[in-house]
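ENTRY TYPE: paired fold submission
RECORD: A
CONTENT: sequence, then structure tokens
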Amino acid sequence: MLSKKTFLGIMSKQYPTLPSLLELTNPVRLLLCCLTFILSGLTHGANNNTEAIIDIADLGTVLPIMDSHTYVDPLKRHNATSITTIAESEWHRHHDKQINLGYTTAKVWIRFTLTNSHSQPISALMDINFPLLDHIQIYRSTASLQEPVLLLQSGDTLSYHDRIIEHPNFALPVVVNPNARDTYYVMLQSTTAIQTQILLWDEKHFYTHYRHASALNFFYFGLLLATALFNLLIFIYIKERVFFYYSAYATCLALFIAAQHGILFELFFFDAPTAHNWSQLIIVSFASTFSALFSRNFLQLTPSEYTHRFLTHAAKLPLPLLLISSLSGHGFAIQVSMLVNFFILSLCYGIGIYRLIHKQPNSGVFVFAWTFLFTGGITYSLAKIGVLPYNTLTSTALQSGSVLELLTLAIALAKNMHSEREARLNAQQTLVEKSQMNVQLQNELIYSSTHNRISGLPNRTFVESWLDNYLRQHKGAPCTLVFFYFSRLHEVSRTLGRETGESALQQFSKHLNELVGSLDNLIPVQPEDGFNIGSMEGATHAFLVNSEASHKVISQITAIQRTINKPISINDILIEPGVQVSLVSSPEFGTQANQLIRHGSIALDAARENKLQLSIYSSDIDPYSERRLGLMSELRRALQCDELTLYYQPIFDVKAQTLRGAEALIRWPHPSHGLIMPDEFISIAEQTGLIHDLSIWVFQTALRQLELWLPKHEHFLLSINVSATNLLEKHFIEIVNRE
């Protein structure tokens, strides 16, 4: 039975990475490296024990070391002296400019020989171009040396300033003399993947090449950081978290790529290599967290969806797992971080595909963008573990994928922001339109509440408010409020129908408004709309002139009355309006709108009752004056106390020269107002219902006087005036006969 040592010796001849794999007891590391073992035969050439010789005379711009021998020392037993004693059969011939052994904790030795066929010494810079190697030792062995000489000891676990050439890569000046045959031993060891190229550069072209590469890298970092800053400003402005998560995610990606290129070590952690190594894992953890949170918000997942919960919980994993895994060392923490990052990346991508299948918002562009990152990440990871060759394409796969992803997502975010802006603008426009409609409706309601529905003229509410404002502004100035009453309107409406009545009112209002416009000293009610007059109630209209009711004003108003009284034609029917007019003056009969309107209406009532064409208000015709109200309450008492008296006017026969009789005339000798004539208190008696008792008192008093006169004048006639209200009473005659 073969021992473990014998087995390793046999298998390592064909699979140089197998000893390091078999030494692994860590299942996570074993999982990451299993593909390396499967494909190692495809990525390494067959053993060839001939010496790997490179002629430096072939150096132009750059000369990659494409012919070398590698030896994997999983037990880390050998040093520079003992490595030279290893049997040639233990070395593995390597015919590729890329050295990619994936994740291994073993020491890896690389051996190659440089010759110079020229007659002059040739100088070059040896460049090991993977910045994340922990330990690097370069030895040179010649025939004249008993043991290899150490030329370089470096790595990212040592201070940046300890390097021979301060550069993110590990560079070493070498000189090969004519006809020399120098063998170089390069020892590589790292907790990350071992993947690099060994290049020989012309010094001038070395700096030129990396200067251009740095410019491209800084363009990439500037692009990512500018994108991050821009989205951070958007977040500050509009307070939407998706822009903050995107900004943080882009920043973490930029920092991670900068760390992978050794830029952070060069600029910030030059004397703190341990902090530099752990900072990369912290950046990766934050990148994973923010990628999950960004995906959750970008895909517009709601808290009720299980995918929302998945991403929320996944975002909480990276930092705690990093803290726990760090207890087992930096190498183990790297692998855990990679697995967690791969898990979250796959989860985000899978949820995006799931939502794309279900045609959810933003899912299409999300999957498209994450395909770039997912492809780049997988390519970069497979190159890291040695499944894919480590070359320019695979080494920049994550960088390229992240740029394409972030640009795609940036365009999507801009499109979303534009769409949301359009939606907000449309919503605002809708609100504005609704507001305008509400304002228009309110204006219409206000207009309808302040204007007559039929004629469109300002109504009583408007006129009263307008008149109050005018009277306040022109306090004490004389003015006259004029009322025009279309007396036959109700008759027209009852006879010819409501529509005909409304048509007649419209014509009347329009005609009157035009005629009034010619008046001197007219104060238009609503000049901005061309309204000179206002509609008060029904068939009554009013307007104002800023002068007292002088003879001239009355003449002009009478002229308008005559003009508008002409018949108007409605449905081929001539209708006479029967216009009656009333006037009331201010400040004599009122300094407020309600007073003037009430007094003007009283005057108009008087014109209607007395069938007058024009009536001018005075307190004498006002049935609602203070004197009249007092007389109403005193008349009953005067009747009960027999304070009224009858005057008898003789009736004389002129031809016969004889007295024929007398007419009984009632008077009220008032203690305060003096003798009150019947035309003032008879109407009060009629309105208060005292006319019946008053008429009976007149009959009783007159008949008693007649009884005194009859013995002397047998044929004496007595005339008594009776109110029309009495004649309408059913039993009035019978009552008089009894008296």
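RECORD: B
CONTENT: sequence, then structure tokens
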Amino acid sequence: MHIAIRLLALLSGGFSALGAAAERINHEGRILGDQVAVSAPIQFNARDTAVPPDLADPTKNADRILETLQIMPRDSAWNEDISARPLLGNSQARSDAMIAMIRSDLSASATSNRHRLVVFQEMNFVLVPDSQPLADIRFVTYPDDSDYNGGTNPIARWPVPSIMPIETWPTGTGALSLDDWQRDIDDEGGDRHSIVVRPGAVPRIFETWQARLTGNTPAWEASNGAIFPLDSNAGRTPGYTSGDAAGLPMFPALVRYDECQRGVIEHAMRIVVKRSRRSYLYPASHQAGSTTHADVPAMGQRVRLKSSFVIPASWSAQERAVAVALKKYGALVADNGGFFSVSICPDDRWPAGCWDHLSTNAGSDHLDINHFEVIETTGETGGPRSAGAPTCAAGADQSVSLAAGAALTGSASGSGLTTRWELYPTATTPGTVAFGDAGALNTTATFSAHGSYILRLKASDGIHTPAYDAVVITVGAGSNPVPTLSAVTPLTAVQNSGAMTVTVLGTGFVPASRLTWSGRADLPAITASATQLTVGIPAGYLSTPGIFQLVVMNPATGGGTSSSQTFTVTPDLTAPVISALAAGSVGTGVATISWTTDEAASSQVDYGTTVAYGSSTSVVATPATTHSTLLSGLSANTTYHFRVRSSDAASNAATSPDGTFTTTSAPPAGGGGSGDSGGGGGCGLGAVSAMLVLGLGFGLTRRTRSSSG
């Protein structure tokens, strides 16, 4: 379906729509609505400073554009849920060894307190429209690893606006103007990354490092430049670097203000280590290593915050969002540096002190590297990028009455799917929703209040990115009809036969219809149409024999009750069937008697040295179909007779035929039987096997005793 335009304000907390919303739900299940177009260059931290601000104006609010943007494909490595991935080499030892190496490399630094995760306000970006004029930029250090966009080595043609920020601006540049920082008038040097995002018809990311505005021709220069598709998993040419040493894009990895405001970071992060191995793993394309040591991480190596890490209550909402994302999406090794660090945008809107616990000055509640683990990464065509991804459809939008509710008709394709309906919360969701069976594709939904609701359907298989779809239900006034009841199928069940489903036929049914069972709580419909309901009958409703009246009830406004149908629960007169009777684990003074029954029943064993038995175990009243009872205190080298008894919930009793077993002889004084290399009390031949004598063997019939035995 397509999310209706009338609900776009709900999705964006009050933003107006630019057009009918397309079917756009990201990998996290967040409904994106229409992608907001970029009409002019806008910096990452731009916002309307008027009072009150015009939050709907995308020319003044970068967050409004970003919240509608699918950043990299849904199955991208950056968007991959790795919370259940196995450890590196399926080995705790290998993971521990690499984490220990990462920590040891940093602990050896002359500066203390580097064996922890820190965040640095580093990379920023600018959004540009498709119409952004191209500017010349010269690549001076790695021109052969650069992308030219129609230019000629070493000069590229890139959509560079005059307001392109350079790394750490504005929170790390003091009183310098943007132009001063672009020109590096204080000659501070450094990595000086730049990022331009063009999210239009041909979505692209343009990234450099050591970018600088000069007085030369062309005015812009950088060490190299890499272009990444925003809508494809295509990476760099193998062996090529990028703004990051690993050849990875930086923009998808940045922790941004807008996502922290929503409370959820929806992607992996880039992480820096002191030393890397001379190799790279997907999705990286370049190595920058100094060793081949197997315990040193490669570029593209993925680390994950352990699920056992308890996020301290003292942490800010932003820090908590980072921790949760590191557990779900992890971080990819992207560069070498002097800290174990991730990059956040240098946004001047961050609340004061919100990153204090992820800094080198943090106290005891810092995040030590030992809380991380290294996982086994998925390849280019593995995990969510493998064939067979699920799909689902939630059906058409509906307008229903509050009294009637909605009949949901979802569909899904894929293998091993789990499906689930849920209410998608918005700023103006009017009430709550009750589903007949939230796990069923076809089910019912009833609502607590008038208004518009978004119901989301999810289909997941544990391997691929889950599929999502959504349907808009507009709930208005209206009256329910009076139902009629013509038939219920089936109309009988045996006492204690377990839960069942009945089909109810008639007219005037609505999703909110209930089946009334005399003397019991009303039952909701699992599925509903105007002429047919399917209703689940709990096992407890069938525990007592009798005749019960069934009535369909439609709630107000309007509504009413139908005539009744009679449902009969017949008494259970059949005893359990005992089978698989055996005596095992027979020793000097013990034996274990086991058997099965075809229905849940109690357990008891009679035993003795004659068929008169004389001893009985206590009754185990807990119903079971698999039974095992230990007999102890038996005499050595003695033949015992036994039988078992089981009764069901209706007190129908079954007794097995007689069986026998012989206990083993007591070991000779001093122990140590011959031929038993295990020592201590054995008798070279081991325990004597049980001899079970049953006239009928297994599969005994009800109420039948064998005369042989």
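NOTES ON RECORD B: Helices lie at 8-11, 62-66, 92-107, 178-183, 257-262, 317-328. The longest strand covers residues 591-608.
STATUS: closed
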